[in-house]
Write a structure and sequence with these properties.
This protein is an alpha+beta fold. It is 46% helix and 18% strand. It has 2 domains: 59 residues, no CATH class; 32 residues. Strand 1 and strand 2 form a beta hairpin. The longest helix has 22 residues.
Length: 112
């Protein structure tokens, strides 16, 4: 099951609130909180597109970048055994643990 929407290079989440009987989501990978909702699949898609268009316009007006910037580093938490096995594999391959993780992530992205 896919719980995301894509539009103009933006990624949006989709969730369901049983309590409110509504679909809702937010635009991901921005520095701002942009929410949208709808009562049907068509409504949530339209609300997402409208939220993206509005956000792009606001960013243009305020001369603010729309997309979140990424520095290229992040912490990864693993089970100690996985950490050990990954470090050993990196050593066997003659690469750093960072290189091993980067290659694994690149493979996952390419497979998607």
């Amino acid at each position: 099951m896919k719980n995301t929407l894509n539009y103009k290079g933006f990624l949006g989440s989709v969730s369901f609130s049983e309590e409110d009987n509504v679909l809702y989501g937010k635009i991901e990978c921005t520095d701002d909180l942009i929410l949208y909702e709808g009562n049907s699949v068509t409504e949530i898609k339209n609300a997402f597109k409208e939220a993206v268009d509005d956000y792009i316009e606001i960013c243009k007006q305020t001369n603010k970048p729309c997309k979140k910037s990424f520095k290229g580093s992040f912490n990864v938490r693993l089970k100690p055994d996985i950490h050990k096995r990954a470090a050993m594999l990196a050593t066997i391959k003659g690469i750093s643990l960072n290189q091993l993780v980067q290659k694994a992530i690149e493979r996952e992205i390419e497979a998607a």
